Predict the 3D structure of the following.
Amino acid sequence: MANDDEFAVRRFCVGHAYCRRLAADGAHVVVVDIDDPVDAVSVLTGGGDKLGLVCGISEPSQVDAVTGTAHDRYGRCDILVDNAGVFPFTDLEHMSIGLWRKVQAVNVGPILPFTRAFAPGMRAAGRGRVVHTGFLGRARPGGPTTGVPFACVTALQTIKRQSVAADLGNALGLPVYDDADFITRRILHGDGGMTRTGA
Ligand SMILES: NC(=O)c1ccc[n+]([C@@H]2O[C@H](COP(=O)([O-])OP(=O)(O)OC[C@H]3O[C@@H](n4cnc5c(N)ncnc54)[C@H](O)[C@@H]3O)[C@@H](O)[C@H]2O)c1
């Protein structure tokens, strides 16, 4: 059971918003999660296939199994979205080396085997998209032991409202379709204008 602070941070599931957007657009969607994603898959709309696969993405053999299944079914993957991860609510003082390694193993390490598995198919098809998600983790005025005061975060944004999952789901539509095929290597900030650099 997540504590209140974790709940405040994890108030919506970005990954599901991505799946909803891609499925609604007609893509075949393979949802990969360490927890059986059957419920998440069951509510997806759109005319494409929907497949849920259980996979601990820090285990290379499990990654091989799901990428193999995707290849067997669909021949290739056109859009790889790397979103799964663990987000411990802690700070520098309390972060153990074990927890640090777990975050790297789940949030960073799997980028390599997933991308390596699907990149040849993208090259052969002449197109492909790889999207990594993350969180800059700024503007947390109450510190790690109190709930995030969202009003303070919103005050720092240009757009004065709290974000909803669809904001990020819709943002995914921007870089992954052919309309944007001249755009490469961009960082999109889905934060209502809180980030004011062009990076
Ligand atoms: N939720 C937000 O408010 C928010 C806002 C901006 C950015 N983000 C970023 O979006 C990304 C995803 O956030 P989210 O809200 O969807 O998180 P989430 O915790 O809701 O989803 C993460 C998923 O990863 C899965 N997972 C964890 N360990 C795994 C493993 N070893 N193997 C396979 N699956 C595993 C979990 O079961 C979970 O379904 C993160 O990078 C986050 O920082 C989130």
User: Anything to note?
Assistant: The first helix runs from residue 4 to 9. The chain has one domain: 4-180. The helical segments are 4-9, 14-24, 38-42, 60-74, 97-108, 111-125, 150-156, 165-176. The two ends are 37 Å apart (CA to CA).
